[in-house]
Amino acid sequence: DIQMTQSPASLSASVGETVTITCRASENIYSYLAWYQQKQGKSPQLLVYNAKTLAEGVPSRFSGSGSGTQFSLKINSLQPEDFGSYYCQHHYGTPYTFGGGTKLEIK
Amino acid sequence: QIQLVQSGPELKKPGETVKISCKASGYTFTNYGMNWVKQAPGKGLKWMGWINTYTGEPTYADDFKGRFAFSLETSASTAYLQINNLKNEDMATYFCAREGGPSSGIFDYWGQGTTLTVSS
Q1: How far is CA B53 from CA B50, B70, B71, in A?
Q2: Would you call A96 and B105 a contact, using CB atoms and an 8 Å cutoff?
Q3: I need a labelling partner for B32 at 20 to 30 A (CA). Which of A63, A91, B2, B111 fits?
Q4: Which residues of chain B have pLDDT under 50?
């Protein structure tokens, strides 16, 4: 199975800052990488798929990049509603696997 | 609008069986696969498998073979997750998630989650 490793596990930032979360795949997954945001007590929401395509309704301050085994999610000008947990997931065939998550907290 | 509405929280004893439902609306149910994802308390997301809503064929991740069963009631646009012989480690929130395209692996809509508590 493909292993997904995210870093950092947690991150503290202020409103207005720019942050980057990284995700590494254990083998080449080309651009088959998705990102999800999950707020406490809620279900995950799709942010990005195919490494860099924003899901419908996702603000343009979010951007995804990368290919192969190294990927990143960048959030420009953090807003209060951006705090929560973020997960990467490969969608290069089953079994799909998620990264361990990054908890983004308010500084 | 597209919605996945799951059944309510469950409290079960070890050894019992639970069946969780996921009712879809706002789209043609049989055109999109349905996946199931487990989230243990304070932990990350784990893909359990999916069911082809057109053929009814389930596929299970290795850790979810044996006691777990996916099923459908197509006429009601509803998918089900059944867990038999419950164990303490089954205690978690379970999500259904629509797959956005054939074998895409992209989960574009999620249910609100069903929390399962297993306690004697």
Answers
A1: 9, 10, 9
A2: yes
A3: A63
A4: none
